[in-house]
Amino acid sequence: MKALVYDKNSKSKISLCEKENPKIIDPKDAIVEVTLSSICTSDLHIINGMVPRANNNIILGHEFVGKIVEIGSDIKNLKVGDRVSANCETFCGECYFCKKGYINNCKKGGWELGCRIDGCQAQYVRVPFAEMGLTKIPDNVSDRNALFVGDILSSGYFGAEMCEIKPDDTIAVIGSGPVGMCSMICAKILGAKTIIAIDINEKRLNIAKENNLADYYLNPKTCDIEKEIKAITKNKGADGVIEAAGFSNYKNTQANHNFTPSKPYDWENDSTLELAWKIARPNAIIGVVAMYEENQVLPLPLMYGKNLTFKTGGVDAIHCEKLLKLISEGKINTDFLITQTFKLENILEAYELFKTQKDNCLKIAIEE
C-alpha cells in the first residue's frame, strides 16, 4: 500500500513509500480502509522534531474516517463494512485514567496513531482497542462531515469544556485556525452568550465571520486588544479564554523579562499565552489547547491577584459519539474547514501547502 513515512534522518523528513498492509496483531484490533484523512499541525511538530516521543519510520497521521475491512476476535460492537470515525487517542477504556475520562493519559495508549505506531496517511491503518477508538458514522453524515470529529472538533470541545461555560459567559478564543474555529462552535453549543474571535490573520477572521462563529472579530494588529475586550465585557474581562494559537517568542521574553501589568499586548513579540491571561477577568479559566514548540513563562507575581485557573494538555476526545449526533442533527458543520483536497499520491504537495498556509489553507482532505 502507499503510505507517508516519517524519517528524521532524511533531508526531506517525509516520503511516500510502499509499505505492507497492516495486520491484526491483537484481538481488539481492527483494520480500517482509509477513505479520507487530513494533515494536522501536530504532524508538522513531529517533522520539526518537537515531539520527542514520536518514533522514527512511522506512517504519519491520526485524523481520519474509513471503512472497517477486518476485525479482531474480541470485537463485538463493530463489523466489517461499518463506516467509522477514528479517535486521535488510543485508549483501553479500563485503566484508572480511562475510567475518569482522561483518555489522553491511558496507561496503554494516548497519542499513538501517527506518533508511536503507524498512522492513517496510508491506504489502510490498524486501530488498537478499536471498540474504544472507532465510532460508527450515522447514515446521513458524509465522510467529509465526520472527518474532524476525532481530533480538531474534539479539541475544540475540550477547550470549551475546560472553561466550564455558564449561560451568560463571554468566551474569548485566541486563534482562528481550525481548532480555534471548532472551539467557537463548541463554546456556542455549550451555551456561551458572547464569543470573541481573535487572530492577526484577517482572512481567517473573515472565514469565521462568514460562518457566524463569533459575535466579535478582533485583530491585535489593528486594535488595542485589551481595551476592546474591556469595552465588550464592561471592564471585567473574558469569563473564559481558549488559547488555540500557540504563538510564542520565548527568547525575547526571557531576555527582557518585560512583564508589566501596564504594558499593552505586543502581537509581534508577546506570546499568545500572555494575551490569554491579560484579557481574562479575575477568577477566570484559561483553557490551553494550543501545542507550543517552546517553553512558556508565567509571571506568577503579576497574576497573583487575578486568581486565574489554567487548564492545558492533550485532548481527552471522549465525546465523539455526541459530536457525530450533533452533526447528524445539523447543529454542527465543519465542512467549510476543508479548503483543499488532494489524492494520497500527491500528499507531499499537500504537506507543502499546509506548511506554508498558502491559498487560504485551513484543512486539507487526503483521499485515495
Note down, in words, how this protein is organized:
It is a single chain. The protein has 368 residues and is α/β, with parallel strands linked by helices. The chain folds into two domains: 2-151 and 316-367, Medium-chain alcohol dehydrogenases, catalytic domain (Quinone Oxidoreductase, Chain A, domain 1, Alpha-Beta Complex); 162-312, NAD(P)-binding Rossmann-like Domain (Rossmann fold). Helices cover 26% and strands 22% of the residues. It has 13 helices and 15 strands. Strands 3, 4, 5, 6, 7, 14 and 15 form a seven-stranded mixed β-sheet that branches. It has a six-stranded parallel β-sheet with strand order 10-9-8-11-12-13, sandwiched between helices. Strands 1-2 form a two-stranded antiparallel ribbon. β8 (170-174), α6 (178-189) and β9 form a beta-alpha-beta unit. α5 (152-162) packs across α6. The protein is globular. The model is unreliable at 253-257 (pLDDT under 50).
Descriptive tags:
single chain; 368 residues; alpha/beta; Quinone Oxidoreductase, Chain A, domain 1; Rossmann fold; 2 domains; 7-stranded mixed sheet; 6-stranded parallel sheet; 13 helices; 15 strands; 22% strand; globular
Task: Describe, in short, the structure shown.
With 368 residues, the protein is an alpha/beta fold. Helices cover 26% and strands 22% of the residues. The protein is built from 13 helices and 15 strands.
